[in-house]
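Hey, resending since the last one bounced:
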Amino acid sequence: MSIFVTGGAGFIGANFILDWVASSDEPIINIDNLTYAGNLESLTAVESDEQYTFVKGDIADKALFKQLLNKYQPRAVINFAAESHVDRSIREPEAFIKTNVMGTFNLLESVREFWNILENDKKENFRFLHISTDEVYGSLEKDEPAFTETHRYEPNSPYSASKAASDHLVRSYHHTFGLPVLTTNCSNNYGPYHFPEKLIPLMIVNALAGKDLPIYGDGQQIRDWLFVKDHCSAIRRVLEAGRVGEVYNVGGWNEMPNIDIVNTVCSLLDELSPRNDKAKYSEQITFVTDRLGHDRRYAIDARKIEKELGWKPEETFESGIRKTVQWYLDNKEWVSNVQSGAYRDWVATNYQERTV
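The structure tokens again:
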């Protein structure tokens, strides 16, 4: 028995693999195309473990997937593979359609063909678990109830629209073909191995480098924050006991405005790695032109997964963010290596063009 993970060299996928190897003896095969955010350095701890296998490949490569599925005969496929950064989707939407829509379609086709020839218990117990986002639900007003699994889809960016399309494809393959699927829609993740284009790692990296901490608009955009290891435990639980065809929202019950997140990071850095001049890191905060179509608030209602599967997050935001900041302080070599020339070019393009 084994499981497949697509996109396992990315942020959430890598954390999932590390946790899986630490808590299970079941083989895990990681298929990742190693685009800019895919980083095998995040998996150094398991690269020589016999339980773990890496294959470089694109989820759109049906011939490769057919070969791999037939060779390893997995009992489950967990699809993390996706383009995931909203700002990049605004500048380069075509890549998001190719990966998130066409890639998911081709993956579903490969898996359906494999599943159709399974027999007896193997076919009955097989699962396809699709990892998605709360952004497919659109934006909430300040006092609106949080997103439930039945909330209407109203995606507002090319990224969220492409993920919404992939969610619909997964649902259709269950209702039309009977493929045993599960979907999770998570809130904003944070934690170790996060690529430093997203808010929290970008703030840590820029602060330590003495650079500006760019905040979009007024900084009052609200998100629900989920520690990545809590997300990984939720995925394991859904894979283990989730009802076929169901959607489970996974959240951290931590709604906070972006500016409060940044100030929290600055305060922790003041404590754990003070500036040489004794000034506060918050003095580096700058407000820049807002992102186009920036959603104002996301919030996850995670009562369904708690009621049905007994899962809830273990970390508070206070404990999780402290662990995150400390990890970046302890892993400066990883940070340095992931900041390639392409990454630096992207940051320059996305932030330095904006009016302060």
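The CA atoms of residues 203 and 262 lie 7 Å apart.

Sorry for the duplicate.
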